[in-house]
Design goal:
heterodimer; A: alpha+beta; 8-stranded antiparallel sheet; 5-stranded parallel sheet; about 25% strand; disordered C terminus; B: mainly beta; 4-stranded antiparallel sheet; about 55% strand; elongated
Chain lengths: ~500, ~120
């Protein structure tokens, strides 16, 4: 293992920025492997060096093992940080790097392979005696068999791409009528997003909470848990709001779930940061999946425990990490994360693209902004629509909710529509406030997304008209003064 | 971007404003608005059409699957086209019991916002 001096980042957006910050603080060089579309992004400007590995489409760049490997070799980096999504859970990528003598910052290719194939993962959890949801994970992948098995499990049934994650390749079947259509759709999404159309079926728990445990394994076989996060606010299985810790676990259940996660991680000799996801319903918990990488929502854990998971990942890889003592990991206060999606909140979340005219992040105590675009940058349709994350910490959950609402009020984003109005509605909902919400929250309360508020629309029209006139007048009068100074003045 | 004071409902209010491509974005009382002057309002617009006889692309993306052919009947709520954008699949559904008049796209084809994908007619 060569000494790590330079780290290549096989990712983009806000997580690339997060990794670059960690490299800077550790005195390591960062090299961003990016696509053609991502030249006007914050990560591109921040990285010490950049290498363009291909075209904008993900298959031509971020999802191409070959192009990433070429980029890493050209960069001379000794290690690669894959972030999340893209190739972060691709064991072939980790293996290809290992073959070239380059470190993959994450678990071994073998651990990724085992946990990444959700079917293999199920076999392992049985061995570790972690409870799981009833389902079908057989080799016979014909539509006929899958339909029959779905019938046997009893609707509602969820069909998932075996290689999936992030909500892609997942469909809920509520009746026999939809069975064929949903299974085919899951297969297609799996094929297009992950290159495999293998799927499995599971009983769909209809009022479960999504609770996950952050774990971390060091090189000597130590595994600790960094407590839980609740991510039950989801739309189409895409998380929107996450918090640490869950507002609804008893101390006993929390301990049981956390210890299960550690047991599972030890079973695959897990190294680095990982997350074990569970569904919790009626005081029972069921294994959902393990994500063998950093999670999008890792900041809430960082804030309640005062740790830096990305630096821990890198230091662990460098064999310079002394693992946290389990007894000294004591959560304090409450943290909430909101994902900012570039979308029109009034059209069931249809992506919004365009260039960012202006953005303002209202910083203050206990507020953190992880973002990947700055003024003038373009939000393109090629990638996931998550633009940024806002994370807040406060001493209690009610205070954290209030802080988040204020922060969202004060955040300004022009040029691209965002889900901020939707986030505010979610955080103000009585079920969110009292903590009783489950994974059906969005489906139940906002099946059509947000409905346009007439009063608000009136403000848009009335105030918009006034401001439009004022701005246009200002432009005109600027045009009339043709003094040599006018150009200079308008730049100030 | 500029801050300006305006008179609204008899009070002086501070607004953050910016004109972007004919639209006026402003932030007032914790809410961001996007005002489109009447003369700039394009037909079709950002969201799916209100015309049930046209299935429009609600976003730029790729056609994954066309489930109905010309002449076929569709029930309300039935999926006609599956689109992919930003790595998520979207089902575009019929808004009434109708018949397919024309299919204007092929699978794998990339389409732009507002493109008419499928035309329908009353049975």
């Amino acid at each position: 293992m060569a000494e790590i001096k330079s780290i290549a980042i096989a990712n983009r957006g806000e997580v690339a920025v997060r990794i670059i910050r960690a490299c800077q603080e550790l005195g390591l060089e960062s090299v961003l492997l990016h696509s053609k579309a991502d030249i006007k992004t914050r990560a591109y400007r921040m990285a010490d060096r950049t290498i363009c590995i291909g075209d904008s489409a993900v298959n031509e760049s971020y999802l191409s093992i070959e192009k990433n490997i070429d980029g890493v070799l050209a960069s001379g980096a000794q290690a690669v940080h894959p972030g999340f999504g893209f190739l972060s859970e691709n064991s072939d990528f980790a293996q290809a790097l290992a073959d070239k003598g380059i470190d993959f910052i994450g678990p071994s290719p073998d651990a990724i392979r085992k946990m990444g194939d959700k079917i293999e993962a199920k076999r392992i959890i049985e061995k570790a005696q972690v409870p799981s949801v009833p389902g079908y994970n057989g080799d016979d992948q014909s539509i006929e068999t899958l339909t029959q098995e779905a019938e046997k499990i009893g609707y509602p049934v969820i069909v998932k791409a075996a290689a999936g994650g992030g909500g892609r390749g997942m469909k809920v079947i509520t009746s026999k009528k939809e069975s064929n259509e949903m299974i085919e759709a899951a297969k297609r999404e799996g094929k297009s997003a992950f290159g495999s159309d293998r799927v499995f079926l599971e009983k769909y728990l209809d009022r479960a909470k999504h609770i996950e445990v952050q774990i971390f394994g060091d090189l000597s076989g130590n595994v600790v848990y960094l407590f839980d996060r609740e991510c039950s606010v989801q739309r189409r299985h895409q998380k929107i709001v996450e918090e640490a810790m869950s507002p609804s676990l008893s101390t006993e259940l929390r301990l049981e779930i956390c210890e299960s996660a550690v047991k599972l991680a030890k079973e695959v000799k897990y190294v680095g940061a990982g997350t074990v996801e569970f569904l919790v319903q009626d005081g029972n918990f069921y294994f959902l999946e393990m994500n063998t990488r950093l999670q999008v929502e890792h900041p809430v854990t960082e804030l309640v425990l005062g740790v830096d998971l990305v630096k821990a990942q890198i230091l662990n890889q460098m064999n310079r990490f002394s693992c946290w003592d389990q007894d000294l990991l004591v959560p304090r206060g409450h943290a909430i994360e909101c994902r900012l999606y570039a979308e029109d909140p009034y059209t069931v979340g249809i992506p919004s693209t365009g260039s960012i005219g202006y953005q303002y992040w209202p910083d203050g105590p206990g507020r953190r902004f992880d973002f990947g675009y700055e003024q003038g940058d373009e939000v393109t349709p090629f990638y996931d629509s998550m633009m940024a994350k806002i994370i807040v910490w406060d001493e209690t959950r009610p205070r954290a909710i209030k802080k988040m609402l204020k922060t969202l009020d004060q955040t300004v984003l022009f040029g691209v529509k965002s889900n901020i109005p939707f986030l505010k509605k979610i955080l103000s909902h009585p079920e969110f406030i009292d903590g009783t919400f489950n994974t059906q929250f969005i489906n139940q309360h906002y099946p059509q997304g947000l409905v346009l508020d007439e009063e608000e629309q009136e403000i848009t029209e009335n105030v918009g008209k006034i401001c439009f006139q004022k701005v246009s007048e200002a432009h005109r009068s600027q045009g009339e003064i043709s003094s040599p100074w006018s150009q200079a003045w308008s730049n100030t | 971007m500029k801050k300006m004071i305006i008179q609204f409902e008899g009070k002086e209010r501070e607004v953050i404003v910016q004109k972007i491509k004919g639209q006026l974005w402003f932030h007032l009382d914790g809410v961001t608005h996007c005002y489109v002057p009447k003369m700039n309002q394009a037909s079709g617009g950002q969201k799916a059409s209100n015309d049930p006889l046209k299935i429009l692309a609600p976003m730029p993306g790729k056609i994954m699957k066309v489930l109905k052919n010309k002449g076929e009947a569709v029930e309300e709520g039935e999926t006609i086209v599956v689109m992919e954008a930003m790595k998520m699949e979207y089902n575009l559904k019929a808004e009434g019991n109708l018949r397919v008049k024309a299919v204007n796209v092929n699978e794998e084809q990339s389409v732009s916002l507002g493109a008419v994908l499928v035309e329908l007619e009353e049975m």
